[in-house]
Write a structure and sequence with these properties.
five-stranded mixed sheet; Spore Coat Polysaccharide Biosynthesis Protein SpsA, Chain A; four-stranded mixed sheet; 213 residues; alpha/beta; 8 helices
């Protein structure tokens, strides 16, 4: 699938609620930061930036054999939006959009990611996310035209921008990985119990081609 879509993985947090670095939790036989990169590669995303911060050296060690660009969030006690801004500095000028992947919400299947990418090719000017049962999931695709808005230091979060623009496509999908978010060790256990997520990087059901504009 030809696309100029790039990806930013936010992996700079302290993981205070988890109590252990999320970026380094083992999933599918590898640290989560490495899993996030491999999942995007399986879907055909070529240009990937990993944003590091806390636990920088350990995270870099975990992904040292993978082809990925690195950005660093230098802001102590920062928010997710700060990591995203750091990652966006690596995005090329000809990118059609950016897929934003929090490292603790990187479980959408390659099939789901491919569906999001296909929809982005059709509607490159729109925000796009997985959606199911009145709930938005991950990753979120940001159109290139909004990158400048995100770099604006007054913006508090991506959620604020999406709500302000009201220009999002909700792609309905039944992929449980797209709605999995690791905040606590109990969440991690649930992730490990989802054997179909860890078992195969490419197989996960979704409802192809259905979305709300």
């Amino acid at each position: 699938m030809k696309t100029n879509l790039e990806a930013v993985i936010a992996a700079a947090g302290k993981s205070l609620r988890m109590g252990t670095p999320k970026q380094l939790l083992f999933f599918a036989g590898m640290p989560l930061a490495a899993f996030a990169i491999r999942r995007l590669r399986a879907a055909g995303v070529k240009d990937i930036t990993l944003v590091v911060g806390c636990y920088k050296e350990k995270v870099l060690k975990a992904v040292e054999k993978l082809d990925v660009k690195i950005a660093e969030n230098h802001i102590p006690n920062s928010e997710m939006i700060d990591s995203i801004r750091a990652g966006l500095e690596n995005v090329s000028g000809n990118a059609s959009g950016v897929m934003i992947v929090p490292v603790d919400s990187c479980f959408a299947s390659a099939i789901t990611l491919e569906a999001l990418m296909a929809l982005h090719l059709e509607k490159p000017e729109r925000f796009i996310r997985p959606y199911w049962d009145n709930r938005g999931g991950h990753p979120l695709i940001i159109p290139a035209g909004y990158i400048r808005d995100i770099k604006n230091k007054d913006l508090q979060s991506l959620r604020h921008l999406v709500r302000q623009k009201q220009d999002i496509i909700n792609m309905h999908c039944t992929d449980p990985g797209a709605f999995l978010d690791l905040d606590t060790l109990a969440d991690y256990k649930r992730a490990l119990d989802m054997e179909t997520v860890a078992e195969n990087l490419e197989q996960m059901p979704f409802e192809q081609g259905t979305y709300k504009g």
